[in-house]
Write a structure and sequence with these properties.
Strand order of the largest sheet: 3-11-10-9-8-4-5
Helix content: 25-40%
Number of helices: 17
Number of strands: 12
Mean pLDDT: 73
Radius of gyration: 22 Å
Strand content: 5-15%
Distance between the termini: 25 Å
Largest sheet: 7 strands, mixed
Oligomer: single chain
Bound molecules: pyridoxal-5'-phosphate
Low-confidence stretches: 1-28, 40-81, 369-421, 463-473
CATH superfamily of one domain: Type I PLP-dependent aspartate aminotransferase-like (Major domain)
Length: about 475
Amino acid sequence: MPPVATSQQSVSSNGSHAHKSARMGNGVDSVHSSHSESRWSTSMAPIIVFDSTKGAKIQKGKSTSICCPPTRELFLLPALPLASSRVRTTGHFHPRIAETLVEQAQKLTLSSRAFYNSVFPKFARQITEMFSYESVLLMNTGAEAVETAVKLARKWSYMKKGVPEGKAVVMSFEGNFHGRTLGVISMSTDPDSRGGFGPYLDGVGSTVHDNGETQTIRYGVIEDLERALDLNGKHVAAFLVKPIQGEAGIVVPPSGYLARVRELCTKHNVLLSCDEIQTGLCRTGKMLCCEHDQIRPDIVLLGKALSGGVYPVSAVLVDRDIMYCIRPGEHGSTYDGNPLGCAVAMTVIHVLVDEKLSERAETLGRDLPQRNCGIEVTARATSPRQGSTECNRHRRSEQCQGKDCVAVLPALEEPRRACEADIVRFAPPLVISEEDLRKAVNVIAECLNDLDRLDDIPGEVESEKGHKDVLTN
Ligand SMILES: Cc1ncc(COP(=O)(O)O)c(C=O)c1O
């Protein structure tokens, strides 16, 4: 059977590793099939082929990740500690999550949305109590949760705020990334996400018209938001914000910024909607990243880690006065609130709490920069491309200290998305052992140092051509 290309590709920053991986049979086939039969969901240089469990032994009872046969260890090492786009916070094959998945799959996986199922209410109670919101609406992917938040905010603004029908605005910030659906990319300022997919949704985005000029609301610049709300506050239903911008290059806003955003939203009767799909669920050392600023958003979006990496679940948490603006039957998805997803997500939350993964993220993240890795690795990664204004603007490593960089740990994941490869984001499962973490960071550091010795940097060529070069060399 030909190897199946997975979406879990990762990237080595070292050319020699790349060539080794390409010669290892499986890798070549996977890269070939990925490129001829599908499209990358992100623009990555697939130098390492990470086949997930294929050919890998699972270490039973160990929740960290996958153990690979020795022959593949060399090039898989950097890929292993990753959390599949911040999804596997609880590790690969966490036994409790796997057990729940299997157990629930043998009982009931899906019921018509016309009926209640026995698992959803338990999960709804658990998650609303955990985050102190009155209600939850479940979706599947993160982008659907964002779309749901936009719909909720619009409806709320017409019903409660008195925005004239059809005039509601949902604002976001420059450099945002909230997913790939059409409504969501309509907010984007990134030509790679947005370009060529128009026409776009009206009434969303990060631009305002100010004295005949179009201005973009910069992330982290409170005056921009202040001005935008002074100009348009009456029609603004919600502000959609990420407590840390990931794809824009791990941009941590100035301290106290979110608290000011909260104040301004309250002043203008605008819903503050926090996209915690990436930063939530322990990744930054708190259950929600916005807890660092001690604020309570009106809408909280969760996804990714909530699924345990085994079954997509996303959640929109709000109080009833917002939720009840949508009546039964006005919004939903075939799979929302299904018993399988609910059971898995419930166990994920138990694992996060029982294994104290917030504290773990805090501790591991705090120690890393002191060991001259983490953010230092990021800095070295920038060296081949220093000089670009755009990149320098986004390179905020000096702000990523202590709890902030924690386990948003500058990463090897999606390096090409994070500002043209100048920033490396390393987002390991939070169950990773200290030893594995140190080992992984050292390997990454070595790979990055090797870049200086390479004439051609893998991934610098146009992505399609790059793959071909790797395969044919
Ligand atoms: C902050 C944020 N929001 C939303 C999304 C979209 O999630 P999904 O890919 O599950 O639709 C992502 C995905 O990377 C994300 O990082």
